[in-house]
From TrEMBL:
Protein name, UniProt field: GntR family transcriptional regulator
Record flagged with keyword Membrane: no
Organism lineage: Bacteria, Bacillati, Actinomycetota, Actinomycetes, Micrococcales
Record flagged with keyword DNA-binding: yes
Entries under InterPro entries matching the protein: Tscrpt_reg_HTH_GntR, WH-like_DNA-bd_sf, WH_DNA-bd_sf
Natural source organism: Arthrobacter glacialis
Length: 119
């Protein structure tokens, strides 16, 4: 949740984040579980602690998270997509055209084709 809020811009750099007790109460989880998540973000350099004040979003955290997520996106979606495109004989230009299509228009065409097939 904290990572999403940082990426979305809801939590800016140098902004204080809720305490582990607040997270635990809000999500109805064990405070130790909330602390583990927050400590992981501290270990990753996403958050830092100001003694006696609380946890804050570190400068540069959004860029770090965006870079990680882009790499994860590439590994989880783009690589398999490109592999399947190669299997189907779809070149880079055709694949780019497919990706540029209006998703809403594709749904309408799919529904229209399904309707025609049913008749």
């Amino acid at each position: 949740m904290i990572e999403n809020d940082i990426v979305d811009g809801a939590l800016g750099e140098e902004t204080q984040v809720p305490s582990t007790n607040e997270f635990a109460a809000f999500h109805r989880i064990n405070p130790a579980t909330a602390a583990k998540g927050v400590n992981r973000l501290v270990d990753d350099g996403i958050l830092y602690k100001k003694r006696g004040i609380g946890m804050f979003v570190a400068t540069g955290s959004r860029a770090v998270l965006m870079g990680r997520r882009r790499e994860d996106f590439y590994e989880q979606f783009v690589r398999p997509l490109a592999s399947e495109a190669r299997k189907l004989g779809i070149d880079g230009v055709a694949l780019a055209e497919m990706l540029a299509r209006d998703p809403g228009a594709g749904e309408e065409n799919t529904r229209a084709n399904a309707k025609e097939g049913a008749l």
